[in-house]
Amino acid sequence: MKTEKIITLAEITVIPEVMEEVLPQAKATREKILLEEGCETFILTTKKESENTLVIFAVYTSQQTYEWHLKQDYVKSFFSFLDRKLKTAPVVTYLKEV
User: Fold this and answer.
1) pLDDT tens digits for 44-57?
2) Which whole-number Å values give the CA distances from 93 to 4, 9, 24, 32, in the listed order?
3) Is the pTM of this model over 0.70?
């Protein structure tokens, strides 16, 4: 049986005044995530019409590698760093490859 990939699309809307502080941390975290064995893709972008909204497209090889990713200190540290810097709660959409 083929292992199902975990594909996520996350939107993180940051308070505009702190975006310059958040972006370097997001980029540094991305570099660590890209080294993860189970991470196939991790693309960090912003919306053109709302540059304080980070949009992350990520693909993990399995549910197990995704769960491992979420437990990493650098991931937890990044979300802790975002505390009180977000305009709204992050929205994560789980996608299915067709």
Assistant:
1) 999 999 999 999 99
2) 16, 5, 24, 22
3) yes
